[in-house]
């Protein structure tokens, strides 16, 4: 998938023009999680990164593989709330390894082919400090047209939990969020994890 071409063509159904409503719900429930240096993989145009910077996290780095996404994130962030970089999660620059207290996950895992999930979790682990946290909203059951396979790719709750557990993460909390973009109600799972080994 060439994500930059998707931006060029304006085929960006994940771009909702605002941060995910799940962020506010998670922050209200577990505010202690949202602090420290924060990494946002697959940040797109940066709505979630800016929200995080406004609500206790910082500094916040949004990363994406699409140059146009990073360009638009920078242009939109007129206050300089967060920073944005072109980063390949599967070839991380050394300066981000072990640098973050928190990773915020939203729509990055579901955008990747399922064969890349273990690599993705290892990349997330790589950027975290010891006992770093992951907070995220995962697309468990995306709406598909007949014959459509994704992205977004759904993931079962059991697979999601075993994926992180196998990489040394402890599940601290998980629930079906009541807040959602229209059409995603009941299809997502909010998850909070901590790196323990």
- Compute the CA-based radius of gyration: 15 Å
Low-pLDDT ranges: none
Proportion of residues in helical segments: 25-40%
Distance between the termini: 33 Å
Name of the CATH superfamily: Vaccinia Virus protein VP39
Count of separate structural domains: 1
CATH architecture group name: 3-Layer(aba) Sandwich
Q: What is the N-to-C order of secondary-structure elements (H for helix, E for strand)?
A: HHEHEHEEHEHEE
Shape: globular
Mean pLDDT: 93
Molecular structure report:
The structure is a single chain. This protein has a single domain (3-11, 20-195), classed as Rossmann fold, CATH 3.40.50.150. It has a seven-stranded mixed beta sheet, with helices on both faces. It is of the alpha/beta class. The longest helix is centred in the middle third of the chain and has 11 residues, at 117-127. The mean pLDDT is 93. The chain contains six helices and seven strands, in the order ααβαβαββαβαββ. The radius of gyration is 15 Å and the shape is globular.
Quick structural gist:
The chain is α/β, with parallel strands linked by helices and 197 residues long. The chain has a single domain, classed as 3-Layer(aba) Sandwich (Rossmann fold), CATH 3.40.50.
Topology readout:
Layout: H1 3-9, H2 22-29, E1 36-41, H3 47-54, E2 57-64, H4 67-76, E3 83-86, E4 100-106, H5 117-127, E5 128-139, H6 157-166, E6 169-175, E7 188-195
Parallel strand pairs: 1-2, 1-4, 2-3, 4-5
Antiparallel strand pairs: 5-7, 6-7
């Amino acid at each position: 998938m060439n994500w930059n071409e998707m931006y060029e063509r304006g085929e960006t159904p994940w771009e909702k023009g605002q941060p995910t409503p799940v962020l506010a719900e998670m922050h209200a429930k577990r505010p202690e999680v949202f602090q420290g240096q924060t990494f946002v993989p697959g940040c797109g145009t940066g709505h979630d990164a800016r929200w995080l910077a406004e609500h206790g996290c910082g500094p916040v780095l949004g990363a994406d593989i699409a140059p146009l996404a990073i360009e638009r994130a920078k242009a939109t962030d007129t206050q300089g709330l967060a920073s944005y970089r072109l980063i390949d999660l599967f070839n991380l620059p050394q300066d981000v390894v072990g640098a973050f207290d928190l990773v915020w996950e939203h729509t990055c895992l579901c955008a990747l082919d399922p064969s890349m999930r273990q690599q993705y979790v290892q990349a997330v682990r790589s950027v975290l400090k010891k006992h770093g946290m992951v907070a995220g909203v995962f697309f468990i059951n995306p709406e598909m047209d007949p014959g459509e396979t994704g992205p977004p790719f759904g993931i079962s709750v059991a697979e999601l939990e075993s994926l992180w557990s196998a990489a040394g993460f402890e599940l601290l909390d998980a629930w079906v969020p009541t807040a959602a973009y229209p059409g995603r109600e009941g299809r997502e799972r909010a998850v909070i994890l901590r790196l323990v080994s």
